[in-house]
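Class prep. Protein, please:
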Amino acid sequence: MDKEIQFEEFQNYLIIQNMAENTIRSYLYAIRQYFHLYPELTFSNLQMYKLYLLEHYKPQTVNLRIHALNCFLNYSEWPDSHILQVRVQQKSFVEHVISAADYEYLKARLLSDEEYSYYFLVRFMAATGARVSEVVQFTVEDAINGCKDLYSKDNKIRRIYIPAALQKDVLRWLTQIHRPTGDIFLNPSGSRISPGGIRRKLKRLAIRYGLDEKVVYPHSFRHRFAKNFIEHCSDITLLSNLMGHESIETTRIYLRRSSSEQQAIINQVVDW
């Protein structure tokens, strides 16, 4: 079969699996990279590709590419064993999480500057735990309903709840700007805002307000949601479900303190 046709069919397979657009793009990149390096799908070539990845990429990227290859092997109904992923040593702390104080400061500045769209964007991410690719999908109808249902890649429904206080505030704003239906977050041209556009804008806002750029990015607010949730509710299983983690082990990292929190404790406690 022609490789381009095969890639197109694999892409359709991923779409049927309800995989996110960014995931599909990264999987296709990995498959194209493999076949650029090795013309045939053999166990020996797969092992060579794994060695190539280990020499050129960080473990997280290696595992992403391996996961893509294993998915392609499933699609191809390949009979041999799949590639084993590499072990990643987990850090004992969470990095680059916006502090509660900086989060409140950012919200206050956004309100005072009438940056209402981004005020509600950061509130949605920090109050729902939604990924940036998920938060851009929220509609006025979701705000009215108080939740949004998303389908995961294994066809499971994940419900993202909008807290009552946020629901009340965002509905008032949507009424004021005369938006009765459709996407909540739009770009200047009136289309749905993109995750890339959000990242760039947040970086500019961090510079404007004198905040650390390393903690003003979309996933930082998702981290903030998880940290706040753990502080107020110890149900880590519920948190794992709310965040859409495939494994509860992924969620356990939020039981740890951030590196800045660890540093503050050390500075306070250690005086010898």
